[in-house]
Design goal:
The complex is a heterodimer of chains A (231) and B (193). With 231 residues, chain A is mainly alpha-helical. Chain A has one domain (6-202). Chain A has helices spanning 6-16, 27-32, 37-60, 70-92, 94-100, 111-121, 126-156, 171-174, 176-193, 217-230; strands at residues 158-159, 162-163. Chain B is mainly alpha-helical and 193 residues long. Chain B has one domain. The two termini of chain B are 15 Å apart. The chains are: A mainly alpha (231), B mainly alpha (193).
């Protein structure tokens, strides 16, 4: 892999390969925890901590972990860090723990964390992996915060619980459909701003999935397409 | 019995995993482009969800007995990963036709938040074994309903590609379609208490 400057590794996750808005991974926590800005920031921070720790440890162990069982190894490592974060949040921010609910333990299966382990941490040095974790974490948090701010503002007229416009609320934004809607609009704005160049792959494809290399769905789909073409 | 029916219907319709709780969205948006994949994936999810629930519920009782309930996250994900591997091997050996239909979706399911989410939720709600089995089956069915309906919408191509404004082509229009579907499912809110 070619040498990249430290700064470009850091900014890669924030802008060029923003996990939520460009790579389109980690959609579940993005949609579910962005109903308010406070939730979005809390989720972003929790995921960032796990991401940095797991990136560092996986990079340190990249020569030790056998290739065949790497995915289970990563999952166990990540689950350990998630448990630590769960303890910390339960102890110091019980309100956040309550509002994030099941999505806090679900950081284990967050595609971003496993995806970065597969795509970056197991090929790079510790320093680079840590920087990548920080960049991706910030990118995830910023995207979440943008969605959280929009949804909280339109949904309740508040920001971080402080009333901005009294007696203003469009309940739709706070509810589940609002999540899909704001996410769609944000990506559309991004596409318009960059004239469609932002997304390399403008569909929800298998390529970005961390399980891509160990999954044969893509192959099977290709086979079906080929058979269809032959017939 | 009435209680079980309420649990089932409310998880299928009111608190649908995909459309109102956002569990398993990655696969909802990724696999719904073909009806055949949507059906296969849904089948695999229902199957694994029920199996995972049947295994993790007793495991949690064991964890509680030794007062190490906090290991839930680590233990559950390991149990689910091992279970999926085992099911895949078992299918390959004894049920090759089922393996052909569902097998390719199984590796995807290990890291599907819907499975882990369902097992953790059932513990959080303090369901009994029967209740959590119904909950898991209902969650799987809800997943299947939303997934198959959405694949139908996407395969039908109810809108022509030229009519979509350029920035909305591709991903955004999929999300907006999901918005409308999610809105229509909100009509079920408050049906079962």
């Amino acid at each position: 892999m070619e040498k990249k400057s430290k700064l470009s590794i850091l900014t890669n996750g924030i802008i060029k390969e923003n996990p939520v808005l460009v790579l389109l991974i980690g959609t579940c926590p993005t949609l579910a925890t962005s109903s308010t800005l406070a939730n979005a920031l809390g989720m972003g921070a929790a995921a960032t901590v796990v991401l940095i720790c797991s990136n560092i440890v996986i990079s340190l162990l990249r020569k030790v972990i056998p290739d065949k069982v790497r995915i289970p190894c990563y999952i166990v490592l990540i689950a350990g860090f998630v448990t630590i974060v769960q303890f910390i949040v339960k102890a110091y921010a019980p309100a956040l723990d309550k509002s994030l609910g099941v999505f806090l333990p679900l950081i284990v299966v967050n595609c971003i964390i496993l995806g970065r382990a597969e795509a970056f941490a197991n090929k790079n040095t510790v320093g680079a992996a840590a920087l990548d974790g920080i960049g991706m974490g910030i990118g995830f948090t910023l995207a979440l915060a943008a969605m959280g701010a929009i949804r909280e503002f339109f949904g309740t007229g508040c920001l971080l619980g402080h009333t901005i416009i009294p007696n203003f609320s469009i309940g739709f934004f706070n509810l589940a459909p609002g999540g899909f809607f704001v996410y769609g609009i944000l990506i559309a704005i991004l596409m318009a701003a960059t004239k469609g160049k932002a997304l390399k792959n403008n569909s929800f494809s298998c390529g970005v999935c961390p399980m891509y290399n160990s999954c044969n769905l893509a192959e099977a789909n290709e086979e079906i397409t080929q058979k269809g073409a032959e017939a | 019995m009435a209680n079980l029916i309420v649990i089932f219907l409310s998880i299928v319709l009111v608190n649908n995993f995909l459309l109102s709780q956002f569990l398993g969205i990655c696969s909802f948006l990724g696999v719904s482009n073909k009806m055949s994949s949507a059906v296969g994936m849904s089948g695999a999810v229902v199957f694994v969800m029920v199996l995972a629930e049947a295994v993790t519920w007793p495991v949690q009782q064991l964890l509680d007995k030794y007062e190490i309930g906090y290991l839930q996250t680590v233990v559950f994900i390991l149990v689910i990963a091992a279970l999926v591997q085992f099911v895949e091997m078992f299918m390959k050996k004894f049920l090759p036709s089922l393996q052909k239909a569902l097998g390719i979706y199984l590796p995807l399911i290990t890291t599907n938040c819907a499975i882990l989410g369902a097992t953790i939720n059932a513990i959080t709600y303090e369901y009994s074994f029967a209740q959590s089995m119904v909950y898991a089956f209902g969650a799987g069915c809800g997943y299947a309903v939303a997934m198959i309906l959405f694949a139908g919408i996407r395969e039908e191509k109810l809108y022509s590609d030229d009519a979509i404004p350029t920035p909305f082509k591709g991903v955004p229009i999929i999300l907006v379609s999901a918005t409308i579907m999610s809105l229509s499912f909100m009509g079920f809110t408050g049906m079962f208490q």
